[in-house]
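Box 3.1 A note on notation
Throughout this textbook, protein chains are presented in two layers. The first layer is the amino acid sequence; the second is a token string describing backbone geometry. Keep the layers aligned when reading.
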Amino acid sequence: MRKSVSKFRMLVALIGMAFAVTLFSPAAFADALDDAKAAGIVGEKRDGYLGIVSGGADAATQRLVQDINLKRRDRYREIAQATPGSTLADVEALAGAKIIGQTPAGQYVQNASGAWVRK
């Protein structure tokens, strides 16, 4: 049990650093992502990745989501490899919970059943 708590804390710390440093940079990505979220086109999924909420996302938004998700996966993989006993799925689930917890009211997130809901 003690190992699980320690691993959990390490993962939380690493994920926090990942968000602070790399996940939402450069600024152009952040602005475009914020606009897409505010418009209800993009939301945060429970697995730590972005998803298209509605079918009306243009090609640029779809590429943005794909690019950010690839960067997130790379970073999650690095965190999993740096944390003994953790898996990519562990990091993804923890990141998803953290991101959804930090998502501002009014934006879309996935609920436990996978449906999009406005937070």
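The longest strand covers residues 42-44. Residues 59-82 form the longest helix (24 residues).
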